[in-house]
Amino acid sequence: MGLFSKPIKTLDDLFVHLLQDIYYAEHQIAKALPTMIEGASNTQLREAFQSHLQETQGQISRLEEVFRMHGVEVQGVTCEAIDGILKEARHVMSDVGDPDVLQAAMLASAQAVEHYEIARYGTMIALARQLGRRDCASVLEQTLAEEKATDEKLSRLATSSINREAA
Ligand code: FE
Ligand code: FE
Ligand code: FE
Fold first, then answer.
1. From the CA of 140, how far away is ligand 2's center (Å)?
2. Domain limits, the chain
3. Burial of 98 (0-12, 13-18, 19+ CB in 10 A)
4. How far is the centre of ligand 2, averaged over its atoms, from the C-alpha of 29 (Å)?
5. Tell me, which fold does domain 11-166 have in CATH?
6. Per-residue pLDDT tens digits for 128-164
């Protein structure tokens, strides 16, 4: 499977491509989260990962809904960016020895994931509106709100406890 399932000629092609890209990315995130949950010795961090795994499964269903609404086949394409971010997260997890620093490192990796998703969902919502697909945009907005809330939760965790404990 290549990076592009078909040539991108129109804005509609780009929207579909981004949908396929994030569909793949959400699956990789859902696969990675159980390892993050296992590695999270900090209770609040573990709970944040657990609840985001539930949300991620719902986000995958929402994407399938958008594929159907837009009349295209449900299909993923390789997202090199998420593969890279998750690969880096795995390396960090195996490299950091101190358990408190490890929590801060895992939190940092998780925020990189959320920021990628926020960037992508933001663009897809703008494209959906441009294409006259307010229906698709409103489904994607629900997911964007969850990604932003997760990012904010992680930021609060970082400043309230995790970074301090690692210091
Ligand atoms: Fe997500
Ligand atoms: Fe991507
Ligand atoms: Fe997320």
1. 16
2. 11-166
3. exposed
4. 12
5. Ferritin (1.20.1260)
6. 999 999 999 999 999 999 999 999 999 999 988 888 8
